[in-house]
Design brief:
By secondary structure, the protein is an alpha+beta fold. The chain has 8 helices and 18 strands. The chain has 3 domains: 129 residues, no CATH class; 38 residues, no CATH class; 117 residues, no CATH class. The strands form 4 sheets. Strands 1, 2, 3, 8, 9, 10, 11 and 12 form an 8-stranded mixed β-sheet that branches. The longest helix is centred in the middle third of the chain and has 15 residues.
């Protein structure tokens, strides 16, 4: 069934042609007219059959929640004290520029962070050799309605249309997964690359904060640095002694401390990492960030696992 809407709320009406528990896909045929949108979603320009991605988060609210999760404001709980970063600049009479910053404490409702669903999409061929962008196969059952709804809304936000389709397409013999991490070797070029990522991901008011934090991590990193792609875009891994420090440039996120054997953890989805609490500690970007980070940046003794 074809769907032409900005967004849907209930997927049930679009599933009438499928039996209970029948497997289906949500997809759209790739055409010359929409190839640019396929690339924007995160696929390679060659439209490789079998490539699997988590769509880029910056397309819509649906793609953001899928890749980054969402924040629920809990007005039913007591308020908490949080900190707001503030930075300002001024000139003296000699036209010398100065910058200062501070963290301002304030009361807010508590936040509950919902882990990303990280639904994947892939390029497949039908029996007539047409290429499609589709979700992975989903079973038509009520317990999967949220995933079906999100899959539909992701494609609607990217293309303005999509359709529910059966699964009689040619499955690729081998899927081609996009690499989730790119290794950067220490040096000036790495520092410049990381600063360019900061400018892309961080608001102007917080650029200096992240530059200061990441410069400290670069100084203490004793091995190659890994920059995230796909669902980990906006994440950077620094190896400091026995720890892998996973820094996030995404709003409302934090620094995660992992075991040095982070490659094994990085094979999991971000949702699996967060839900299974595979991190040693999670440190928010507040005024005490550096104080809490020092023991890890120095690569010292571990202070207990999975505190949260």
């Amino acid at each position: 069934m074809k769907i032409n809407k900005k967004k849907i709320r209930n997927p049930k009406r679009y599933l009438s042609e499928f039996k209970e528990n029948e497997r289906l896909r949500i997809g759209i045929k790739i055409t010359e007219e929409n190839k640019e949108k396929v690339e924007k979603l995160g696929f390679d320009s060659k439209m490789i059959v079998g490539e699997i991605i988590v769509p880029n988060s910056n397309i819509s609210k649906s793609t953001y929640e899928n890749a980054e999760g969402k924040c629920i404001i809990r007005k039913d709980l007591p308020k908490e004290i949080a900190e707001r970063y503030w930075e300002w600049s001024w000139e003296d009479r000699g036209h010398n520029t100065y910058t200062d910053y501070k963290y301002i404490p304030y009361e807010r409702y508590q936040r509950e962070y919902v882990a990303p669903r990280a639904l994947e999409f892939m390029i497949v061929e039908d029996n007539e050799k047409n290429k499609w962008v589709t979700s992975t196969e989903i079973e038509n059952s009520q317990e999967n309605y949220e995933d079906i709804k999100l899959s539909i809304n992701i494609l609607l936000s990217a293309f303005g249309e999509c359709e529910t389709i059966n699964t009689n397409m040619e499955e690729p013999i081998k899927t081609v997964r996009a690499v989730k991490w790119e290794i950067l070797r220490p040096g000036k070029q790495t520092k410049e690359r990381i600063r360019s990522i900061i400018k892309e991901k961080v608001s102007q008011n917080r650029e200096s904060l992240y530059i200061r934090n990441l410069d400290k991590l670069i100084e203490n990193s004793d091995e190659n640095i890994a920059v995230g792609t796909q669902e980990f875009k906006g994440y950077i891994v620094f190896i400091c002694g026995k720890y892998a420090i996973l820094e996030s440039l995404m709003p409302n996120n934090a620094t995660y401390i992992l075991d040095k054997d982070w490659e094994e953890i990085s094979k999991l989805t971000k949702t699996e990492v967060l839900n299974n609490k595979l991190h040693i500690e999670r440190i928010y970007h507040y005024s005490n960030w550096e104080e809490k980070m020092n023991k890890y940046m120095k690569g010292g003794e571990q202070h207990g696992k999975n505190k949260e």
